[in-house]
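Reopening this ticket.

The earlier resolution said the output was attached, but the attachment link was broken on my side. Pasting everything inline this time so it's all in one place.
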Amino acid sequence: MNVSRQALLASLPPEWPEDLLPQIQTQVRAANKKLVVLDDDPTGNQTVHGVAVLTDWSVPMLTGAFREPNPVVYILTNSRSMPLAEAQDLNRRIVRNLKTAQTATGRDFAIISRSDSTLRGHYPGETNVLAQELGGRIDAVLLVPFFAEGGRLTAGDVHYVAQGDILVPAAATEYARDATFGYTHSNLRDWVSEKHAGALARDDVATISLDDIRSGGPSAVSAKLMRLGARFRGQTASPETPHKVCIVNAVSYRDLEVVVAGLLQAESGGKRFLYRTAASFVRVRGGIAPRPLLIHADLGLSPGRRHGGLVVVGSHVQTTTRQVESALALPGIRQIEISVPALLDDKLREGEIAQAVGRIEGMMRKGQDALVSTSREVITVSSDLDSLAIGRRTSRALVKIVRSINTRPAWIIAKGGITSSDVATEGLGVHRVEVLGQAIPGVPVWRTGPESRWPNGIFVVFPGNVGDDQAVARMITILRQPAASFVE
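Inline output:
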């Protein structure tokens, strides 16, 4: 049932009083592990800054990353867009390359399997394969879906999605009705059992409660974690033998600080954990201090706007539809809508793409911003695989549009996780980007590398399920030159 956010927070014990980030930073430096974030779409780096995101996980690329002092590196897998078997194979190959890089550099690593904060993704398929490739040396999988920037809180083992001051249990939101990754439980112990198809009973799922965190502090968290995993010692991980899972409750960044300080103590005592988390956990586990929201002056955009910007929309959630409507109310922006049925028709596909490219080029050369989106109608499919296949086909069309544009946009916004990944990797050819930070909570801004089609460009990764109705319009306003004028 829905609850008042204010009432729920008021019912909890007070937060742990000590700022633990300096202690965490010391612990991270002492451990000298590389924290490798396997991100199943490109949206999970919205909480960090000064961190590299790799789309190339070759051994030379990973070895170079391990030799860099920064404790965190992201690898963009985009596995949420793949069938399970393909996603598992990809994770398997990445871990094998990570182990080769570890041998070459002598630097140990820990893995965060970063997935969507509303519990969508290939769980437990990915974590089981990761544990298996790590040789069964995992005491527990820690499940941490708290995501402050997106209003996702976990209390009493229930995961909530904030809608204003109301907290809605996650299973009652549109995200739980995802055609591929839907679920029926908001209580995470039940959710884990559901995702394990009953192979792991809810009573076998451990919990770190808010009382543990706020009353007991790091030592209480560490003590609980030290008790995990004993009955799995000596076993080889496999999809049929799930590891112990521990849910982490959190409603604030201070809660995460307490958890991370405690788990780092447990790791120094010999425990080894695999993390399945949302984005907020990465910043704290990496010991990264928060950065203020980016403003136009932080982005290094060339003065004197000659060309318009480009907004590429692939997400179909209702939040995105409302955001697009608000963005189109701005002056100097026009929409090009691509027909999904035409993209699925081999006879119509190329003509639809060519027409869109011509219109976008014309707009941007006039200094207007172009918003290209797929039509909003829902295409009925017969299976989850068909749903993924349609999504990938439409995403490939958007990529081809970007790849066919000759006019360099002033900036690019990609709306939707899969769309962002495909546009960056296939449309722009990026292998490595730098995360500058967030301009809007939950929305990361990248600077493209020299290998990119448009080097040193600003690329905004805008998750489909983040922000209020005006969020995309605000992002466009931040990117535009102050007092920009437009040719209508």
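Reporter confirms the inline version is readable. The chain has a mean pLDDT of 90. Residues 84-105 form the longest helix (22 residues).
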